[in-house]
Fold this protein.
Amino acid sequence: GAGVSQSPSNKVTEKGKDVELRCDPISGHTALYWYRQSLGQGLEFLIYFQGNSAPDKSGLPSDRFSAERTGGSVSTLTIQRTQQEDSAVYLCASSLVGLAATDTQYFGPGTRLTVL
Amino acid sequence: AQTVTQSQPEMSVQEAETVTLSCTYDTSESNYYLFWYKQPPSRQMILVIRQEAYKQQNATENRFSVNFQKAAKSFSLKISDSQLGDTAMYFCAFMSPLSGTYKYIFGTGTRLKVLA
């Protein structure tokens, strides 16, 4: 079946503008994760959704970052008043259950965000 | 807090040779999971291999195997018979179900180049 998809693939924006990044998880996967990959860095956890539970937002770097997941499927990561340090690749992943410790996370191809 | 360290930013290996990528981690927990992901230039993160900490036997997947040393908190990846398609960034990741979430903690990656 189809894998995790993300859109747009690339996004260039001006400092101070808002951006929305979209993630479509694998159908039937109840857990969804957002990570940020900055140049030369590993992946940094941002937020985690599991079913109808309250999301784990502990990784969001500031209140300019928010995310929602509608209908338990598609998720949107919003960055308000973008700054140059927000430039990175934003990766989304999903897993089948999210509560089983051996769940494998399947990643999308990411959105490369460039803030000018 | 858990940390993951990959001390080799870049490595190269001749085609058909064997290469070992190192990963160390720090945790006080006894139950956790370790992963190696491959990220080719397409940015798509692909699971290479995973290891449950409670299993003493090292995981293997075809040409990929790990050397898991729990006491030393070491989790190295061995790639045998290297192929040009193995050229990619390799990330080591840690996950503990006891943390209350199922996020991965990633190292900064090792860029592997397989030479013809």
The CA atoms of residues 30 and 97 of chain A lie 5 Å apart. Chain A has a mean pLDDT of 90. The longest strand of chain A covers residues 43-50.
